[in-house]
Amino acid sequence: MEITSCEQYVLAELEAAQARVESLTDKNASLQARLLLAEERVDALQNAKPSRIEAYIAEYGRKQLFDDLTYANATPAISADGKKTEFRVWCEECLRDYGRPEWMSAAEFIEFFEPEFRKAYEKHIEEQR
Asked: Distance between CA 26 and CA 18 in Å, rounded?
């Protein structure tokens, strides 16, 4: 269309802008739908119950890692003079000096395996009474 007046120019620009808005609106709707599908997949994966073999491997691997990197099963929680060692101090005493990845601090390891440390600690307390 040949532009012959200012009004025609403005109308042409307006039509072009409206077409661009419609195109972007369609693209936005498409991206929103894809995002919703991706979020649903993430939720499904996060909430998925592990298979029996996955659960076994996770449980066994966690136990094996804890056993390999600590002396928790052999470190007494009550000293020879009968004083109970503070839990956190006991955890630090149980850590081996090797085997733990360099990128994992002792504090991170203790925090991650706190349930296992707590169970072993309480078992030692009970056995040593």
From this structure: 12
